[in-house]
Amino acid sequence: MTKLRLAIVGAGPAGIYAADILLKAERNFDVSIDLFDHLPAPYGLVRYGVAPDHPRIKGIINALRDVLDRGDIRLFGNVRFGTDITLEDLKKHYNAVIFATGAVRDADLNIPGIDLEGSYGAAEFVSWFDGHPDYPRSWPLEAREIAVIGNGNVALDVSRILAKHADDLLTTEIPDNVYAGLSESPVTDVHIFGRRGPTSVKFTPLELRELGELRDVDMILYDEDFHYDDAARAAVTSNKQVFVIDKVLNQWRQRETGNASRRLHLHFFAKPLQVVDDGTGKVGAFRWERTAPDGEGGVVGTGEIREIPVQAVYRAVGYFGSPLPGVPFDKKRGVIPNREGQVLRKDPSSGSPGATQQMYGVYATGWIKRGPVGLIGHTKSDAMETVRHLINDLGNWWRPESPSEESVIELLDARGITYTDLDGWHALDSHELALGEAQGRTRIKVVPRDEMVQISRSGQ
Ligand SMILES: Cc1cc2nc3c(=O)[nH]c(=O)nc-3n(C[C@H](O)[C@H](O)[C@H](O)COP(=O)(O)OP(=O)(O)OC[C@H]3O[C@@H](n4cnc5c(N)ncnc54)[C@H](O)[C@@H]3O)c2cc1C
């Protein structure tokens, strides 16, 4: 029987779902899957993106873990595609590869002052509070007033973690250094800015509601943002999600405020213009232009410029994918160009500059396929589509010279790569749970990469 030796690069939800779907799919060939990740632990942004105070979502890890624990997928952590293993290597050992490398860095926001000291990308901050091993262990939390730019769920996560009292995060899996850092924060006011109105936000009702439940934090809204035009009113009546968001915001407007030690301000119709220098190269203020509804659900600038003093700015304007050596990349969208998961490259034989052709043996799924939007569940449907093509493309797979399972291990060993495996992940997982249990917490994450690797490889 034909056997598909498949490499999947990226052990986030997209990569794990792709493996699971392929193993369960109706097919007339055997499958053997190796899952690579440059982090020593699996689960991608579920471990290093989803906020620590979202235990229900973090719980998706249990379903992903069940897939890995079935025992028919080999995990190689701490192996970076592009340096530790290349596309040429994969061609020698596998019939095909699926890239599921997600999107981990911040999209750019081109306004003056965005590079000042005290101006950060949300992805960097998220990586810090979620204990990502490749980010500094300390974070400068010296600002009393903070601006958060963006109206999506990541902006809400960042604002919530900034405004929440550190003690209220103690039951979660936040690393000790994160708790210590947040405990020292002098923050009093977090201002969230969105370019459009309350009925055009990208965040979801559940995430929004959570903000209003924070202990000792007042929600501050501004009446001027709630003069709805026809398009906004129509959105409230026709879209259930908008209806709920509008209801939540209006309930907050009725609340008494003034007794809390911290405040979360929601500013709508605010187009970011500039992060203002305090005269020493640090963030001193945030400047924006007031916008107004354009009658069709969008906004136009009014020319009215406003400014508030802040000492830190976080931009949460989206994530962006990173290019992988040897793999085509769409620089504008930050994705691997593909047709339903089949990777496309430039067609050199065509006279037309935009012409593409399928790059046989190479597939994409998840955020690197579709762009950084959507929930974890969406990566499942992504994977179904990609895997369907992989199965149908059987005649066009690579023909590797060394397809044996041992040959990859020999390659990694010969290069001195200290990879981690599934048993190693179990060891690290148990270690983190034990650390947590000792302090009455669910888990305490191990942050330094070398420590993660050492614990994972201790049983080898
Ligand atoms: C801050 C934040 C909060 C979120 N909160 C929620 C939420 O509450 N609920 C929800 O449903 N969704 C949430 N999401 C969305 C969810 O995280 C994504 O939908 C999902 O993680 C995308 O899956 P993925 O597998 O495509 O990418 P990822 O989860 O990013 O996984 C990609 C994997 O590829 C690996 N990788 C990257 N480059 C390489 C390389 N060169 N070599 C080897 N490995 C590599 C990475 O280490 C990573 O493990 C959130 C996202 C963010 C950013």
Roughly what fraction of the amino acids lie in strands?
15-25%
Strand order of the largest sheet: 3-2-1-4-18-17-16
Radius of gyration, in angstroms, nearest whole number: 24 Å
Oligomer: single chain
Helix content: 25-40%
Label the overall shape. Answer: globular
Summed up, the helix count is 16
Q: Could you list the spans in which at least 5 consecutive residues all have pLDDT below 50?
A: none
Q: Give the averaged pLDDT, no decimals.
A: 95
> Which molecules are bound in this entry?
flavin-adenine dinucleotide
User: How many strand segments?
Assistant: 18
Structural class: alpha/beta
What profile does the largest beta sheet have? Answer: 7 strands, mixed
In whole angstroms, the N-to-C terminal distance is 33 Å
Describe the structure.
With 460 residues, this protein is α/β, with parallel strands linked by helices. It is built from 16 helices and 18 strands. It has helices at 13-24, 44-48, 55-58, 60-69, 87-93, 122-129, 153-163, 176-183, 205-211, 230-238, 240-254, 367-370, 378-392, 405-414, 422-438, 449-456, and strands spanning 3-9, 30-36, 73-76, 96-99, 105-106, 119-121, 145-149, 189-193, 217-221, 262-267, 270-277, 283-293, 299-309, 312-315, 319-320, 338-339, 342-346, 356-364. A 7-stranded mixed beta sheet has the order 3-2-1-4-18-17-16, sandwiched between helices. A 6-stranded parallel beta sheet has the order 6-14-7-8-10-9. α1 (13-24) packs across α13, α7 (153-163) packs parallel to α9 and α10 packs across α11 (240-254). The longest helix has 17 residues, at 422-438. It starts with a strand and ends with a helix. The model has no long low-confidence stretch (mean pLDDT 95). It binds flavin-adenine dinucleotide.
